[in-house]
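Good morning C.,

I know you're traveling, so I'll keep this short. The sequence:
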Amino acid sequence: MHAGCLRFVVMPDHLHGVIVIRHGRSSPDGDPFVQRQFGMALKNSLATVIGAFKSTVTRRLKRMGMTGRVWQRNYYEHIIRNDHHLWAIRRYIITNPACWHDPRKRT
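The tokens, ready to paste straight into the viewer:
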């Protein structure tokens, strides 16, 4: 698996990012979508990448003296299906900090 971050921005109380996950090969039966039991983490999945990120950041913040919760329980995911959609999301991520002062535009 190869994962990379194309674009991100850290906001005062959340972050936005585009993560690309590419699998070098499919499952043994040729199906790139592997079935799993409900509630079980799927190796190299988006949930695993996000979980590892949250865990690493939390450990570092705790070592620096932060107390209390760091993250909300879940995350929002969206599949980007084409270049036009990717550019629109990148533009949103870049311009989002400028909207922070206006509570009606916060996302």
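Safe travels,
E.
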